[in-house]
Here is the input.
Amino acid sequence: MYRNGVLESEDFPVADISDYLADPDTTVWLDFCGPTAEDLAAISEELGLHALAVEDALSECQRAKIDCYDSHSFLTAYAVRMAEGSSRLERSEVAAFITKQALVTVRKDEHFDIDAVVARWESAADSAKSGVAFLLHGLLDYIVDGHFDAAQVLDERIEELEDLVFDDQPDHPSLQRRSLDLRKSLVHLRRVVVPMREVVSTVMRHDMGLVDEPMHPYYQDVYDHVLRASEWTESLRDLITTIRETQLNLQGYRLNTIMKKVTSWAAIIAVPTAVTGFYGQNVPYPGFQEVWGFWASAAAIVVLSVGLYVLFRRRDWL
Here is the structure.
């Protein structure tokens, strides 16, 4: 519980929240991790939360959004992080009930690092007088920075993939697997990043009454990060698509090169076959049973084979 921007109390019973909120100078933050319906029922009575908002807080895989009710707002967002040693994106869903004097966060699992959010609040304690706007900013700032960091990591992974595509002997199955993993991660990242533009812009609206003038520049900074992360994600999707197309084009080019070489050598090998087949007839022909006939056939094989080899080399077929 904060009073006039100063932290005064922690770890108090949920039943005391209504007593604290009777003072207009107080702000309360309550955090749940994996709550049950009974847990949320208690705070719902204290704050008068809407039944639909409570239902959404308990449901899984909600879309990132913000819903407005008479006495409060309900927000859903996702924190993301890259799994160690892979291109897989991990998500942690968090919901928040926002009233004039209280912020209630509902984490679906322990993977959402709430301690990092608290650290942001402690590092910017000078702005705590803004109450709920201050608390909500720290939460959104942490989430959006995570989106930005994930986009940066994916950008680095895509650059690594670009280098592998142009290797002399690329590992095509590995490239295909990595590019598919990156595409899936980018799809998941886009699903959580793009809706945040609407969420942050809605929070900043004056008719919402959530953001006061001192906190408005901070929210504007968060909104700028949301736009940059969204645009970055879109550009990375186009880039990974281009890399995949380039990989296929390179495969086709290498296949054409191999086919040209195989065809050229097949043409050269066909010369001795044709000449020896001609001289292997069972009827008399010029040079039949003569020594010079053998040398004539050998010379024809050498001259024609060398001629074809030189011709194919000039045309870069060999």
User: Anything to note?
Assistant: The helical segments are 17-21, 37-47, 51-58, 114-123, 132-165, 172-204, 216-278, 291-314. The longest strand covers residues 73-82. The first helix runs from residue 17 to 21.
